[in-house]
Amino acid sequence: MEASRFKRSSQREKEAILSGCSTGGLASILHCDNFKALVPMVAKVKCFADAWYFINAKDISGAPHIEDFYYDVVKTHSEPTRQ
């Protein structure tokens, strides 16, 4: 759903959930803040990855790309938010 139409239709919502599986699971975590911006400030927003699976193998250059990428994802979402 396009963001402008979603924002208009969600103005009375009190709770919102964003979920996904496979690569959509990763996207639901990475875009949670953007999703929260679309619903009213008073709404509770939960985002979760139902499932995801990426092979933890080295890339063509021999670097552990996926491992480093997920480390950054976890680090980003583990840091306390500033008030």
From TrEMBL:
Keyword Secreted appears in the UniProt entry: yes
GO terms of biological process kind: cell wall organization
InterPro entries linked: PAE/NOTUM (IPR004963)
Top-level enzyme category: hydrolase
MF term (GO), any: pectin acetylesterase activity
Subcellular location: Secreted, Cell wall
EC number: 3.1.1.-
Main location: secreted
UniProt GO cellular component terms: plant-type cell wall
Keywords attached to this entry: Cell wall, Cell wall biogenesis/degradation, Hydrolase, Secreted
Record function comment: Hydrolyzes acetyl esters in homogalacturonan regions of pectin. In type I primary cell wall, galacturonic acid residues of pectin can be acetylated at the O-2 and O-3 positions. Decreasing the degree of acetylation of pectin gels in vitro alters their physical properties.
Protein family membership: Belongs to the pectinacetylesterase family.
Protein name in UniProt: Pectin acetylesterase
Annotated source species: Olea europaea subsp. europaea
